[in-house]
Amino acid sequence: MFNGSLENAETKDQAETWYVAGFIENQQYDAERTKQILGQQPNEPVMYDALFSILPYFEKAYELDQQPNEKGKVKPKYTKDIKSILSANHIGLFNGGAYYFDQKDYKKAYEFFNQYLDITELPMFEGTQTATKDSTFMTVQFYAAVAATQIGDSKIAISALERAKDTPYRQYDVYQYLCYEYEQAKDTVNLEKTLMEGSQVFPDSTYYLNSLINLYVATNRNDQALESLNTAIAKAANDTELENLYSVMGYVYERGLEDYANAEKYYKMALEKNPESTEANSNLGRVYYNQAVNKQGEANMINDSQKYQEELNKAKDLFKQALPYYEKAHKGNPSEMQYMIALRGIYYNLNMGPELEAIEAEMNK
Asked: Which of 6, 43, 88, 320 has an alpha carbon 20 to 30 Å from 240's alpha carbon atom?
């Protein structure tokens, strides 16, 4: 019934109309909150829905309350009460957000946390305690961002995370969430920007620098990948990190630049850190194997029998170099088909009949 006053031509432009609408919602909120204070069970959805409804009415009431009267003077009638009620209820929005977060209604949780933040930013509270961006504000800002990531809308999530990323409360987590959202949105420009910021804000973390390396490798930006890899290698804290970084360095040289000499060099460095590494052994074996196949292809294009045999021998030497590494990789992971396929090719080209039969038998199991 009262809603008609909000649309009535005679009353819709009066501050009192909107103030009363907000005041009614506040009374409903206070009635349920009083039960809570007295140790009784409030109707939480009713309580929090009423609380959430207050701000839109009061914002309109405040706007109209600041209008000059017929004499051109501004004489606010409701502003003091509006500010008092909103300030008193401010923490209730945090509680409402927490309630809906626990209920896994992340959209409502985000809306409540967001309204808390909006009130902090209102011009009417400038210079007051309500506008203070204290530890509670930072906590709300963080959980608003977390709730936003659960809604399923990258645009909302990114906006909330960007707002929270410069606040010194769980900043590391915010940057990780933000990287994930940009990755989901396939926004590689902002993903790269955020990873670079993260690596600067958290120089002791390997996550951002390593993720940046992965991005450069995935987008074939080999020079930037190598530069970041060198930075990461200089910061590496242990042999495990070094092994992984050397392997990636070898991969960039092998696949990105087709520089087999440097690929071999870095794969060997990775093996020095962990001689039993199945991946490092297979990487080095692959470098020799692929060169052998290429050399074999070149030999097949030669008509001169002597030169053909010379090139074919070079191919066989490369197959021989690949052999021990693939055998070790196969031993480390006997079920990996690509290792068996490579070994079959090596045994065939080196005329290793019994070994060829054995590996084919394994492949047919």
From this structure: 320
Q: Which among 155, 153, 152, 159 is positioned nearest to 174, based on CA atoms?
A: 159
Q: Which two tokens stand for residue 306?
A: 């002597």
Q: What is the pLDDT of residues 11-35, one digit of tens each?
A: 677 889 999 999 999 999 999 999 9
Return averaged pLDDT per consecutive 10 residues of the chain, 365 residues in all.
56 86 96 93 96 96 87 85 96 97 97 97 94 94 96 94 94 95 93 94 90 93 95 91 95 94 96 94 96 91 88 94 96 95 95 94 91
Percent helix, strand and coil across the chain, each rounded to 5? Answer: 75, 0, 25
Q: How far is CA 294 from the centre of its chain?
A: 40
- Asked if 169 and 133 touch (Cβ cutoff 8 Å), the reply is no
Distance CA 24, CA 45 (A): 16
Sign of the alpha-carbon dihedral angle for 295, 300, 306, 307: negative
- Closest of 283, 313, 286, 280 to residue 298, by C-alpha: 313
Q: Which residue has the tokens 């040289």?
A: 253
CA dist 276 and 278 (Å) reads 6
Q: Which tokens in the block code for residue 164?
A: 């929270």
Eight-class DSSP state of 252 = I
pLDDT of residue 1: 41
Q: HSE on the CB side for 159, CA within 13 Å?
A: 9
- Over residues 301-342, the pLDDT tens digits come to 888 889 989 989 999 999 999 999 999 999 999 999 999 999
Domains of the chain: 1-132 (no CATH), 206-275 (1.25.40.10), 277-365 (1.25.40)
Q: Is 282 exposed, middle or buried (0-12, 13-18, 19+ CB in 10 A)?
A: buried
DSSP state for residue 131 in the 8-state scheme: G
Count of other CB atoms within 10 angstroms of residue 115 = 22
